[in-house]
Design goal:
The chain has 414 residues and is mainly beta. The protein has a single domain, classed as 6 Propeller (Neuraminidase). A 5-stranded antiparallel beta sheet has the order 9-10-37-36-35, with no helix packed on it. Strands 11-12-13-14 form a 4-stranded antiparallel beta sheet, with no helix packed on it. Strand 21 and strand 22 form a beta hairpin. Helix 2 packs antiparallel against helix 3. The longest helix has 14 residues. The protein is elongated.
Length: 414
Amino acid sequence: MFAALLAATPACRWPGPACRNGTLCGGRCLATNSDPGNCGGCGDGCPPEHDCAGGRCVPRCEAGETNCAGTCADLLADPRHCGSCATACASGLCFHGACCRGTNVAGRCWIVLAAGGPAGLAVEDGSVYWTAPREGAVMKTPVEGGMSTTLVRGRDHPVAIAVDPSFVYWTDYNQGGSVMKVPLHGGTATTLASHQAFAEALAAGERAVYWTGRGRVTAAPLGGGRLTTLASQQALPFGIAVSRAAVFWTDHAAGAAVLWRSVMWGPSAHRIALKGILERTMRQGEVMAAPLAGGPPWTVAAEQAGPGGIATDGRAVYWTDDGSGRVMAAALPGGSPTVLASGQQGPGDIAVDGASVYWVNFTSGTVMKAPLGGGDPVTLASGQNEPGAIAVDGSSVYWTDATGEGRLMKLTPK
């Protein structure tokens, strides 16, 4: 009976090698989706200088180009395919894979890197680090653009920020006040100082982090430890910068620190009102310094009309003076103050590199630069909405903008 069943069953044939990801052509399994000699079907070859993509013959693209539905496109510069195929730029401008939001007179392009109410910002190791006070977060965004990463969440109004090659530092700007740090790539946050009410500005040095607040300039070791007061009985210390030898800060007179807090973080209506109060009540301010090793503070520049942002490259110290509309510099050590730019409208935060000094004008909505050795200021970006913080790296300048819920901006080349 079993023999009869076998006799009645058709002969079984082994199908040979599986061809699950292609097409069986003459006993061979071919990738007809990508094989230029069998594109879309067996024996359907593509003409010269063509490749096979998705089973269709398409023109062969040059190095650095991507085939977008039969069109070769440079995703870094093509406004019809900016960053990815079929991503069109309304402005008609694409730069480094991002749509330009505008250009300046020199043709430089600025883009939006991130949104979400940025306040302080710093640049390190290919990323922009920024605080988002309303979200209680410390954020990280690649300098070339892309997804932002939340490093810390749930903080109480993080504002000032600084970075070094290993950590991000920030201040929680509130009545209790803390100075915190977290690794650049995320991890556990550590408290360096607590009970630091309304810490204004922050700078990271080689061995310590420094901040201003409540009439004092204070330092904490980078690894944690005992706090050191470098200066006390200051009127209203605000901006801060550090070199290898000294820490520098701006000291406002009555009403000025209130203006700065309102300018950077408060509602627009309050900013305008407090600006008027400042102009009526402000006394003369100073730019101050103190040695990192300890010792009495000294005056870098006296009789300033409202010093705010400050930066140093170790050879000189640079600051903005809102009351006089000037950008200033003083060579180190002990040089007399000189004017780098005048006639500025609301100069605020400031940054420096090896060739130029950069600043934002809050009132006129401009981002500016001027040569360190003197020369005419250059407008890098205009039409900005209350630009606040600023930072630079080797190729670009970054700043915060108050449009909508707030934006993080980038301009390349600087």
